Amino acid sequence: MIGKLQKIKLVICFIICCFSAFSSADQKVSFDTLLREMIDLDRLVEFPDPYYKTVQFSSYDRSTGKVNGSSWFNNLDGFGGEPVPAFEDVIAPPDKDGIGTYLVCDVNGPGAIVRMWTAMIPGKIRMYLDSSKSAVYEGDAGDFFKYPYKLFADDLNISLLDKCFTQRDASYFPVPFAKRCRIEWTGNIKDIHFYHIQIRCYEPGTKVLSFTAEQLEKSFALIQEVSNVLNEPDEQYNFSSGGDKLHESVSIKSKENKKIIDINGNKVIKELKIRLQAEDIAAALRQTVMTIKFDDSVIPQVQSPVGDFFGSGPGINPYKSLPFTVKSDGTMVCRLPMPFNSNAKIYFRNHGRQVVNCKVEVLSDKNNYNENALLFNALWRADHHLISNDPVVDLPFLVVRGTGRFIGSAIMLFNSCDVPIGAGGSWWGEGDEKVFVDEDKYPSIFGTGTEDYFNYAWGMNDIFAYPYCNQSRNDGPANRGFVANARFQIIDDLPFKDFFAFYMELLHHTRNENFSYARISYFYAQPDRLTDHVEITHAQARMPQVSESWTPILSGLGLAKGYQFYQVEQMIDSLEDNRLAFEHDPIWAGGKLVVFNPEKKGDKLCISIKIPEDGNYELKVTHAVMPGSGAYSAALDGNSISVNGTNLIQLDSPFRKMSRTIELGSYELKKGIHLLEIKSESGTENNKIGLDFLWIKKL
């Protein structure tokens, strides 16, 4: 009983065997060469030699059926108990305890594992390489997908290995194999079992040195070098040589289109730095559109709002990755090489109403790539006023005909859902990525959720940044408001010979109007590539329309069911307290936030909670996490409240303004008034406490 995806991937391997060139059969792929590729952005410019096709084995819903058929958007992709097991085959059916053995993948020919991911998977994994009958890995499944190196680490520095290979819920620990890779899972099919495994299938004749347990210690010095570059790219990324720096500073009036950079010669842009300044910087970063054309092309290779090009909009949302950096002062850096044969021209068009000041710095050098070097491309598109789930749709990220390689994407969303909790409410990312490469009749990469593609899980709204992925903005509460995610596919890039198409489902937990979905795709391609690019219009390059006020609502589904919501300003005895102020912003419920400015540590704010009848009640509070905030502790009727094992609730965020909800616990309460005390635990500076609304539910 071989799964559909397994059959497709066997065909892929056959196609590679039949049609790939053998010019690189003498090159060797090894653990060390793959390590170096993890920090080598220059290699992306040239089509892979030896050639490989990157495929993905995942727990996608096997009942999905035909492309665009009635079950195309089925979503039982690893939750457990799905009618069709989310594996390639059943090796041993479940025993009386429900434990069975299932085939994750069985790839014949030279290849390499380049990425793995899981949200959760219990059970055991066995991985066999080449013709060995002994498993090179046999152990915990969760560790295999996130920390496979731990089994081989012995006395090595685990912290360093984590920094090099683990990024959020994904592992980029490369596992090369010469002849075969077979992975089996033993566990209970009724348990949660989400997983991805991305594998390069190399052309036949490619010499690959298979991974061995001793490899980790032998390559530890190189691992340390790679880790340093991945985690400190601004200081450690090594450009191959010097180069010439070009600085330009210009002002761009409303509706003006201005050429900023014009470089002639056979060169490469090695680093591009941009900083915009304007009265409304968030609007400027979305409404100032950058266009880059190489070699007098009439169709731009790059066109995107400036902020979205760096995968971090709207506004300035600092993060650091291998290819991009966004700094807190608004300086944005791109390290992806951009070669050209005769000229490169960069234009900025101001679609906004304000004057925008632009500072641009370009580091360029002689083009030393081969004559068939690929051109850098970045294409952006946006859909505003979408209605989620009405119907569920596949949103196109990129469709291109030609030769090249896809190296990642970023999304910038506005989610106006007023249910202030993720599950059953504001979670927007149930949709899966579906990628067609060359002759694919069915996706050779079929995902399990949008956040899974971006290397996290469970719709988490925390801010994070890793060398290959980030969530640089998530306003909240839960998944409401503006969201920015990015993933850069450096070692797990997707080469294509003739055709490439990337789609992402928009599948929300609720029907949601006025959903805005902007996305950018990064890829390299030959000059004659044909894409689905359409010139960015004034209507597209705008900030999404945001209501000045919103009201949290109940949901009949999920975890928001049964709560009542109360604005904090309605629960304070006296709003004349000179320690209180109000901040007006659409991020807050009702468009208004109560800000408590304590005069000293220990100052208290009392909130009156009216309980209509005796019972057991659950309490939550939604508060502000933002610059200048302090810490507080809470007590109910004089009894201290512990949150996640601590009495101290920290609110400071150096760069971002966010709405976050914490659980205060459940309590037996009598009918009448109960006092929730908010006590400042900070000094006289950076001590403000922003409180939005309370949640109360009778259990």
Distance between the termini: 47 Å
The overall pLDDT average reads 93
List the total number of helices: 11
| General form | globular
Give the amount of beta strand, in percent. Answer: 35-45%
The major β-sheet equals: 11 strands, mixed
Q: What is the number of domains?
A: 4
- The SS-based structural class is mainly beta
**Multimeric status of the protein:** single chain
Percent helix: 10-25%
Walk me through the structure.
This protein is mainly β and 699 residues long. It has four domains: 4-235, no CATH class; 241-367, Sandwich (Jelly Rolls); 382-534, Jelly Rolls (Sandwich), CATH 2.60.120; 562-698, Galactose-binding domain-like (Jelly Rolls), CATH 2.60.120. It has eleven helices and 47 strands. The strands form eight sheets. Strands 15, 17, 18, 23, 25, 27, 30, 31, 32, 33 and 35 form an eleven-stranded mixed beta sheet that branches. A hairpin with a 5-residue loop joins strand 20 and strand 21. Helix 4 (158-165) crosses helix 6 (220-231). The chain is globular, with a radius of gyration of 27 Å. The model is unreliable at 14-25 (pLDDT under 50).
